[in-house]
């Protein structure tokens, strides 16, 4: 799809001057993704500040068959929000649609526009003594529109589910420019197809989210964070089963950190230190939290971890004695991606697996990778409580980074084939974007792919919105 100069001029004239830009310096950060893997060009950068303007832009794009790429905080990890190299795609940023329309005054729902960051929503909820439980390392930049569109997960899925279970409604603009006024506040609403669930996880291929109603929970009144050192992955799975069974709904997070990952964080980030005196193969960061007033969680955590120590499931454990120590332990987990970046090139996979298969999978896959690329350094971490592994691979020490990255397809094929064989998913929470569109076509069953293509064709008949994301165009 090429875009004609006079069509662009007409659009600019219809918008306010602040709604678009062709300033190369301003646009540049929007044309490269967080991992520096995707670089694009754009015919025009749009940043409207109202739903009506978004609708106008979509009507214009639909009429003139102009491809639009939607972007929020640009923290996505699969290239979904970066235009291609053709220079003919128009980049639509939702960052200026950033009002909180209802800050949770009823204690149940926050209504936030697409460009509001997750951190701002969490803060607004806290000000009402309530909790918006979604939490992830990119929360300072990830926006509500992006989080809904990718059905984001994060560290509290174990207790609260993914974004799909945290939204009560969405306002969205369909590719034809019609506005879906769906900012419901209802927990129960069985009135036909659930459009919010369809748009959630659609990665901007079916509509542009302009606002969402977000479900609030009771604020957390006490929490306990512990880091445990474990001998094996089998022990980690047994620990999960035990904590899950005996903590009730208080278990909030169960995150895996490998020895290599902890080394990287301690090496590359200031003020990070190994909380243990001896090295161990695996670590679990566990968090218990309660919204009940005066419920001490220390005795529960101590009892459960003492039992695990006695039973040989863990070798050692550190319990945070203060909020400051809890934050320090979480920093070790949250900075893993950053530390891996500082260590050189890495090839990353966001997979999920049936829990029973995880130890065997990690062992077999690491073994095969070592045979394929001698010296490869797996840094396998993630949301173990959800069966979600960030199966990341750092380049061999001293190797040429580009030579390693050139083997991306070969290495990823191995990891993904083994994932599918184990009954897992090639994308647990980051989505498909540009990165895995080809792969999806190869692994998803035919009927599902056909149904997805039919939905796309029905809502976006001219294929203008986020083309090439999730579904590869028919060749
Ligand atoms: C350090 C780090 C840690 C992360 N941890 C997690 C994690 O734990 N769990 C997790 O799930 N993700 C994680 N992510 C990935 C990322 O933060 C999420 O995918 C997030 O939802 C992206 O939000 P965004 O606003 O940055 O969206 P973008 O990156 O701007 O866009 C992501 C996708 O959504 C589409 N999109 C954006 N806004 C809209 C909109 N308003 N309407 C329609 N489509 C839209 C884009 O076209 C693109 O396809 C992490 C990323 C980083 C960098």
Please name the defining characteristics of this protein.
475 residues, alpha+beta, Uridine Diphospho-n-acetylenolpyruvylglucosamine Reductase, domain 3, Alpha-Beta Plaits, 17 helices, binds flavin-adenine dinucleotide
Structural account:
This protein is α+β, with helices and mostly antiparallel strands and 475 residues long. Among the domains are: 100-218, Uridine Diphospho-n-acetylenolpyruvylglucosamine Reductase, domain 3, CATH 3.30.465; 222-335, Alpha-Beta Plaits; 344-431, Alpha-Beta Plaits. It is 35% helix and 20% strand. The chain has 17 helices and 19 strands. The strands form five sheets. It has a five-stranded antiparallel β-sheet. It has a four-stranded mixed β-sheet with strand order 1-2-4-3. Strand 8 and strand 9 form a beta hairpin. Helix 9 packs across helix 12 (336-342) and helix 13 packs antiparallel against helix 15. The longest helix is centred in the last third of the chain and has 15 residues, at 358-372. The radius of gyration is 23 Å and the shape is globular. The two termini are 15 Å apart. The model has no long low-confidence stretch (mean pLDDT 96). The protein binds flavin-adenine dinucleotide. Flavin-adenine dinucleotide binds at residues 34, 70-77, 80-81, 94, 114, 136-138, 141-143, 145-147, 149-150, 152-154, 203-204, 208-209, 337, 429-430, 433, 466, 469.
SSE layout and pairings?
Elements: H1 5-14, E1 20-21, H2 24-27, E2 44-46, H3 51-64, E3 68-71, E4 90-93, E5 100-102, E6 109-113, H4 118-127, E7 130-131, H5 144-149, H6 157-160, E8 167-173, E9 179-182, H7 195-199, E10 208-215, E11 217-218, E12 222-230, H8 233-246, E13 251-258, H9 259-268, E14 282-290, H10 298-310, E15 316-319, H11 323-334, H12 336-342, E16 346-347, E17 350-352, H13 358-372, E18 377-383, E19 388-394, H14 401-405, H15 408-421, H16 437-443, H17 446-459
Helix pairs in contact: 9-12, 13-15
Bound molecules: flavin-adenine dinucleotide.
The site of flavin-adenine dinucleotide has 37 residues, from strand 3, helix 5 and strand 10.
